[in-house]
UniProtKB/TrEMBL annotation:
This is Small RNA 2'-O-methyltransferase. It comes from Rhodocytophaga aerolata. Residues 1-242 form the Hen1 N-terminal domain. Its cofactor is Mg(2+). It catalyses: small RNA 3'-end nucleotide + S-adenosyl-L-methionine = small RNA 3'-end 2'-O-methylnucleotide + S-adenosyl-L-homocysteine + H(+). The lineage of its organism: Bacteria, Pseudomonadati, Bacteroidota, Cytophagia, Cytophagales.
Length: 466
């Protein structure tokens, strides 16, 4: 199966910056059932095209199948179109190959992220349950011009009629991250099937990738139902959340159940909200955000009047600059500006600027450290800085099996050095607490699965009075 994205934006090779893929290199990423290859058939100043080619292993599909899927018949796992057409496998490949672009990140040319480019997308063989009419109903409301070429069942037997397969060309002037989000959601919607287990975490992905367009799409209900594999409870819940967003815009949110309102938050937003809640609960007035990144948590901390002094630290100067922009530090009132300070520093070196604070947040940071440096990190934070309360989060490795973009043994982020199970995290945290005279308790972050827990895990350390 083949997907190409072309642009005539000048210079067209800017496409390589946005997608983090060099035009002179062929790259490959592992998928659960094969490989995705990324290459450029053409790359000039006038026109640039990137291709995503999926090489799906038909034998592997059968070997790893957990049972029949789709509409079902006795030999379906042996006789089907899964290795050859754009389906949920293509969505997984898009997420794996172009994750940075989908998230709207471009370090070398950040201005390109919000630049509308003339784009032409071609999907070589796309199954469409609902035909060309439904295909147009999905893409045309988003502003695309749609050209669809219908394929016959067999060109040697025209009397057999048309198949459900199309070659589709989409043209638009649009931000690239929006194109990728549209394709990620709508390709499996057209196929109306998924090759992986669908649970509540799929609602979060749908809301994330559908942000800014799904809520107002005229086919919102059909998209939601098909994306969630026609599972009625999940569909009903997702549509309730989308309705909550719609009603919130006109001031009616208070009429909806609290659990629906809460579900609108992404996992990261839930993680940050829980961190702030625990810091407020600690009674802290002077707080640290260690590994503050681009300042999302700092912005929430500023909203809490309880925090009289807030210090954000990160090893990346560029992240700190982005945080300054996000927080609009140069435009804050003087009293607000006095409450917050940003510094560059490392969690692997003793720093007297970190001493004397009431509490610290360390959110999704430790997994970026080599395990051999953890002991140094522990001494710096727990032994030297020693805030009264430390709120620390890290991914739960057990939950990774629920992410279809992850193959066995891989981490959620390329920069992660390790990811712990709940048991491994508890062993580490309890040992640190014992050595440095803290007590510790644990909380799940995000919706919990009965078998594998929540996506992230939190430890709250509190000093033991001597």
């Amino acid at each position: 199966m083949l997907l190409t994205i072309s642009t005539t934006h000048q210079p067209a090779t800017d496409l390589g910056y946005l997608l983090y893929k060099h035009p002179d290199k062929v790259q490959s990423v592992e998928l659960s059932q094969g490989k995705a290859h990324i290459f450029y058939p053409e790359a000039t100043e006038e026109k640039c095209t990137i291709a995503l080619l999926l090489d799906i292993d038909p034998v592997g599909l059968v070997r790893n199948a957990k049972g029949p899927s789709g509409e079902g018949f006795a030999l379906e796992q042996y006789v089907n179109d899964r290795p050859y057409v754009a389906s949920s496998f293509m969505s997984v490949a898009i997420a794996r190959a172009f994750a940075t672009a989908m998230n709207g990140t471009c370090k070398d040319r950040p201005e390109l992220v919000n630049t509308s480019l003339p784009v032409e997308v071609t999907i070589s063989v796309l199954p469409c349950k609902g035909g060309e009419y439904f295909l147009r109903k999905l893409f045309e409301p988003l502003g695309y011009q749609v050209q669809a070429t219908h394929h016959p069942l067999d060109s040697n037997f025209p009397e057999w009629g048309e198949s459900r397969y199309f070659t589709v060309k989409l043209t638009h002037t649009i931000r690239l991250k929006n194109v990728l989000s549209h394709l990620y959601v709508l390709i499996p919607v057209l196929d109306n099937d998924k090759h992986y287990w669908v649970g509540e975490h799929e609602i979060e992905k749908l809301l994330d990738k559908g942000e800014g367009w799904l809520q107002t799409h005229p086919e919102r209900e059909q998209i939601t139902r098909r994306y969630l594999k026609n599972l009625a409870p999940l569909t009903k819940y997702a549509l309730a959340i989308l309705s909550a967003e719609e009603q919130a815009e006109v001031g009616l949110e208070e009429e909806l159940p609290a659990e629906i309102i809460e579900k609108k938050k992404t996992l990261h937003e839930q993680r940050l909200a829980l961190t702030v809640e625990q810091l407020v609960k600690s009674g802290a007035k002077r707080v640290l955000d260690l590994g503050c990144g681009e300042g999302k948590l700092l912005r929430l901390l500023l909203l809490e009047k309880q925090f009289e002094e807030i210090l954000g630290m990160d090893v990346s100067f560029q992240s700190l600059e982005n945080a300054r922009d996000r927080l609009k530090l140069d435009r804050l009132p003087e009293k607000q500006k006095e409450r917050i300070k940003l510094i560059q520093g490392s969690l692997l070196y003793r720093d007297k600027r970190l001493a004397g604070y009431d509490a610290a947040a360390i959110v999704e940071v430790i997994e970026h450290l080599n395990k051999s440096r953890l002991a140094t990190f522990e001494r710096v934070v727990f032994g030297f800085a020693k805030p009264g309360t430390i709120v620390l989060t890290t991914p739960n490795a057990e939950y990774n099996q629920k992410y279809e973009t992850l193959t066995a043994g891989t981490f959620r982020h390329a920069d992660h050095r390790f990811e712990w199970t709940r048991a491994e995290f508890e062993v580490w945290a309890k040992n640190v607490a014992s050595v440095y005279h803290y007590q510790v308790h644990f909380l799940p972050v995000g919706p919990e699965d009965v078998m594998v827990g929540a996506s992230s895990q939190m430890a709250i350390f509190e000093t033991i009075p001597r």
